Predict the structure.
Amino acid sequence: MIIDLRSDTVTKPTQPMLEAMFSAEVGDDVFAEEPTVIKLQQKAAALFGKEAGLFCPSGTMTNQIAIKVHTQPGDELLCDTTAHIYNYEGGGISFNSGVQAKLLPGERGRITAKQVRESINPGFDWLTKTSLVCIENTANRAGGSYYSMEQMQELYAVCKENNLKYHLDGARIFNAIEENDYTPADIGKIFNSISVCLSKGLGAPVGSVLLGDKEFVAKARRVRKVFGGGMRQAGYLAAAGIYALDNNIVRLKDDHKRAKTLAEVMRNLPFIENVLPVDTNIIIFNLNDNLKPEDFVKRLATHNIKATGFGKQAIRFVTHLDFTDEMLDKTIEVLNKL
Ligand SMILES: *Cc1c(COP(=O)(O)O)cnc(C)c1O
């Protein structure tokens, strides 16, 4: 038994998901005649109450397309210091869109309406034009924290007042939804665009969808082609996404429960300095100074547990569809003996 806590992207398709993929009806999506891709896009869009959707190979691509469509070169976007779009997308904001990011120090990855209001540049010729606000829900680098509806709405109000576009990096939006009383439709109402990953907690092997109004998605489709993301018989992959939306949302709660159980145990371990609050499926913790992260990871590996460092003394564990109760017990046992 191999226990992989590196990421929720490590899940492999289950037999029924594979069967759904195997029996997918397919066509050429560049000619816009891929029945299963069209079905997935419509399904995801309907769920969030958006007009249209676009299936893409990755969440990096959906985010980067959204930034490209919402901005002009020389513009500025606002996001949290820990944002995925800024830290983990290869410098794509500048590379793809010629845009710069103004980083706001949020609270556990969450920026506020006040911070945004104070960061918008006045319209002088010599200042960068602020045109876009991007938030992440749940916030990855910050440890899976989520926004409340009120916080997201306050940000929306500032964006609207100041003519800024509002993008949601919803790689793990369903993890947030399962812990809150807001629905996908509530979220769809306030964002100009939403990126949703199917290949994280939802357990699909590949893909993300980008949602927005028809005009936005038409532009996004062009950019996707330019970025090299125009796929052909992608219905085999989209079928996995449809299966994931139908079957793997509600169970995310189980991942959260396991993460919380694990975190509780870890708080009492002598070699762990501290564990960040655990709100969803991500546990970030710091090792004591006398234990090197490489050594800790190596020791876990001898027990068939995979983990990776997350900078300095930090390690990140992520629970997911392929992390069972049996694996949870084994992980606790190993940690207690380490
Ligand atoms: C994983 C992730 C993405 C997209 O990553 P890909 O690996 O490109 O699919 C985007 N945002 C956040 C917050 C993520 O965790």
